[in-house]
Amino acid sequence: MELPSMELYYPRHHHRLLHQEPIPKTHDRSVRIVPGTVTVQRCCTQRIRRLGLLKTRSFLLEQTGGKMVVELVGAFNELTERMGMLSSSGSQLLFKALKLSIPLLHALPLTPDGRSSLSRALSTSLLLADLQMDAEVISAGILRPVVEAGAISILDVRNQIGTGTAHLLHESLRVLKVPSKVDVLDDGSAAALRKFCLTYYDMRAVILDLVLRLDMMRHLGYLPRYQQQSISLEVMKIHAPLAHAVGTNWLSLELEDLSFQYLFPHSYLYVDSWLKSHESGSKPLVDVYKEQLLQSLRVDPLLAGMVVDVSVDGRYKSRFSTMKKLLKDGRKPEQVHDVLGLRVILEPRSGKDMAEVGESACYRTREVVRSLWKEMPHRTKDYIARPKTNGYRSLHMAVDVSDCGKSRPLMEIQIRTKEMDMLADAGTASHSLYKSGLTDPEEAKRLKAIMMAAAEFAALRLQDIPSTNHEGIETEQSQSDRVFRLLDKNGDGRINIEELMEVMEELGAPGEDAREMMQLLDANSDGSLSSDEFDFFQRQVEFMRNFEDKDELYKTALNEKLQIANSSSLIQVSGEDLSSRLGN
Questions:
Q1: Residue 137: band (very low, low, confident or very high) from pLDDT cuts 50, 70, 90
Q2: Pairing label, strands 411-417, 340-348
Q3: Which DSSP state fits 22?
Q4: Which residues pair with 316 in a beta bridge?
Q5: pLDDT at site 524
Q6: Calpha distance 294→418 (Å, rounded)
Q7: Is pLDDT at 416 greater than 50 in this prediction?
Q8: Helices 418-435 and 441-461, interaxial angle, to 10°?
Q9: Which residue has the higher pLDDT, 335 or 233?
Q10: Is 307 helix (H, G, I), strand (E, B) or coil?
């Protein structure tokens, strides 16, 4: 792991600062620069600029207003980057929600698992962004802990943020109470509750609740064992199948595995150890095979003439799914074939015969796979030549990846075009609903239509005026300017002191913090911030957040390597001492 480069963010790289006078204004302008002194002067200038940068960072970490703005800008940028395409109305909604929630979250006590309320809210919102949820859902996710704590009412959210976000908060709180509708949670009652959620609640509120459940399951270690098991049983019976029903398969798999780990810890350990026994070296096998296949596909000249892009996704079979196949299906370990899985997605070159070219590319990819590993013909299925009744098209094959005398389970490989992949995802919705407790296929189709209509209505409500960008795609520059445009309320291309003070006050910080921040960031001392000056500030925010993320990463890695618990006598740093050193 590498430390983030500090060199990247030195002020000398900021072109606005290069136009400043080489000697600060407080110096005597009568001093003449003579030959031979330029090097000394340049060193002094760089030292002054570095001191200015350190002072800026100190302000951002110590002053209330600075910290609030750093958190606002950092959270907004990370969320919008993960969300991808976002209209200006969606940006404004998300920005308002963050401004409202950050100071309120700061005032809340630590969560029962020891995290700050802000950290938990941002963790949830990032999961929602990864699921490509809209700005209303993410805003509801950020505000949910504030509403639950009674720091703000749903009526306040409706008045300050919008009706859509308030509605989702109300719906998600109703979904939260669904498990309490039954006294005994057996298979029948669980299926009825899942159907009830899919029928009567906004699907986006259901997904919000599922993400909150996942966040809870990831931090369940602080509870007594009986509570861990009670919550895990509820998640296994209701929420994991529900996540599969609404199409969030990876969320469903993680919920299953986490529940499995708490319900049957010894069984989980056996399955986990068996799966890891197939590893060789420090790198996961699935990553090794993924890189090997991707490299072979990219250098193949025949395939290069057919496609403009190729990607390979890899996955391990979930622990819970492996356990079911070993126990419920009665299979022997060597009969569990799809422990490892790769999916190849091809994007064929455009043209009249694009679909035909895509099919040829799939078959060519199969030939490349055969050149790398031994195919098991009895496991090969050609759903391109013979599509399934629901229109599903793909090539499925299994290969033997055993090497050097070491036996390994077969690896499953799926090959399809980008269009086939999109149709496969859409086509599985009714099947997923059927598997998750709905026994009537027509009912499943009806619920799928409701889900699609809700999503389309949300998109329509957040729809923007057509962009001047004819492609309808935001450029990288426009994405980086999102926060600047939101703060520049009068649209003059600069952030003045009044606009900066306004956002500080909305975050609950004193106005004087805004003046100090303006002085530190205003490189040319004109009393306002240009987009370039604000972009430099955003780089510093990203730099500081990068260090925080790296610190967590290093802590985890060191714990694994050194097997040191937080309470170990080898490393004893009190929380108060650490907080004082970090300026919190």
A1: very high
A2: parallel
A3: S
A4: 340
A5: 78
A6: 16
A7: yes
A8: 120
A9: 233
A10: strand
